[in-house]
């Protein structure tokens, strides 16, 4: 049996999974990740994390955490813990891939 | 159908919240003849199908009612020569397109055209992990190999791939092989769906029902692998109703998340709703999808919780499972108004086990292929 997939690490580079897109639904006033037969509504924090950490133009997750640490003026260790947990969850749900 | 979707809050005026998706059954035609087909036993003919212009109007209305996604389904949607045109139209008006297909009519050139039209996701059914069994169930020689070719092409082209594996007596023992195959193909997601017994599958229940031993082995295998699969492939696992203690939230609740349009344009709350007697279904020629969603009699009939009998009405789970499946209540309890008998609290629950055990023991029963 294979090992459990590791948590997302700061050195990972993430992109949206095939068929996943970030959308703003004006009718509902919500940002969402739209994917195969599913969607995930993003709150303000989740949207900030996706924007900072996911995409080909972003060096790695660490760079996104640095940016969020400055934007939210919060201790980096706390930001990193929350962000890595959220990104791991998004990866396990199939919205982002390494 | 995935139930991991948010429900959009209803507006104060008691208007129902908009649907998440519209399922468009473009046709009932299909080169495969699976004995558990989810299409109605009385299939609609090609000559009755909506034309391209009407489907485009229905797509416009789907966007108007607030749906975010469209599922192009069937039958086999690829028999429609206007599929690319419909996908392009959906893309133009901001709808996310899913293609639910057997894949046997697809090739790389057509996949490329569909991708250019904006298709995001292809869901391909597999009938088994190996060709002999798969082609026998589908009634289509060479189908399995063709499906694998197309699945690989979908991934190579950068579209999302889901493998839909329907399990029954004849393939349930190979569930691990099916999961391995889906991962080897590069699928982002696998639906491990045990047969739901409506329509063709209900008629073939004695030929398809797995035994309790098969079921337990499959369930242990899937659950045992979930930790290892997390982060590698998304697993949507549909527990087989007849062995369950609580019903599933069918369609995410009646008239809460989905609308279904049949090939000739009937608008249904679920694809099997036509089996329910005494229901009045409107068509896309009668009123707009918005009007039908808001107060169409078929949609209003089992929406929410007001319609529920006891024991649903006083049950803590009533806004989780929404009373289960209406079509199953009809098939098993004799009334679509009843609590889904899959629920252990239903007065008809014991009879489900009797039917299940009788059919599971009917080894050697031949199935009837779906046919026109």
TrEMBL record, chain A:
Matching Pfam families: PqqD
Keyword Hydrolase: no
InterPro entries hit by this protein: PQQD, PqqD_bac, PqqD_sf
Top-rank taxon: Bacteria
Keyword Secreted: no
Entries under Gene3D superfamilies matching the protein: Coenzyme PQQ synthesis protein D (PqqD)
Pathway assigned to this chain's UniProt record: Cofactor biosynthesis; pyrroloquinoline quinone biosynthesis
Key words, A-Z: PQQ biosynthesis
Stored NCBIfam families: PQQ_PqqD (TIGR03859)
Subunit text: Monomer. Interacts with PqqE.
Name the record gives this protein: Pyrroloquinoline quinone biosynthesis peptide chaperone PqqD
From TrEMBL, chain B:
Domain Radical SAM core: 16-236
Metabolic or biological pathway, per its Swiss-Prot or TrEMBL entry: Cofactor biosynthesis; pyrroloquinoline quinone biosynthesis
One Pfam family it belongs to: SPASM
E.C. no: 1.21.98.4
Catalytic activity: [PQQ precursor protein] + S-adenosyl-L-methionine = E-Y cross-linked-[PQQ precursor protein] + 5'-deoxyadenosine + L-methionine + H(+)
Residue numbers binding [4Fe-4S] cluster: 30, 34, 37
Binding note for cofactor: Binds 1 [4Fe-4S] cluster. The cluster is coordinated with 3 cysteines and an exchangeable S-adenosyl-L-methionine.
Signal peptide: none
Keyword Flavoprotein: no
UniProt cross-references to PROSITE patterns, sorted A to Z: MOAA_NIFB_PQQE (PS01305), RADICAL_SAM (PS51918)
Recorded superkingdom: Bacteria
Cofactor(s) this protein requires: [4Fe-4S] cluster
InterPro entries noted in UniProt: 4Fe4S-binding_SPASM_dom, Aldolase_TIM, Elp3/MiaA/NifB-like_rSAM, MoaA_NifB_PqqE_Fe-S-bd_CS, PQQ_synth_PqqE_bac, PqqE-like, Radical_SAM_PqqE_MftC-like, rSAM
Task performed by this protein: Catalyzes the cross-linking of a glutamate residue and a tyrosine residue in the PqqA protein as part of the biosynthesis of pyrroloquinoline quinone (PQQ).
Family: Belongs to the radical SAM superfamily. PqqE family.
UniProt protein name: PqqA peptide cyclase
Lineage of source species: Bacteria, Pseudomonadati, Pseudomonadota, Alphaproteobacteria, Rhodospirillales
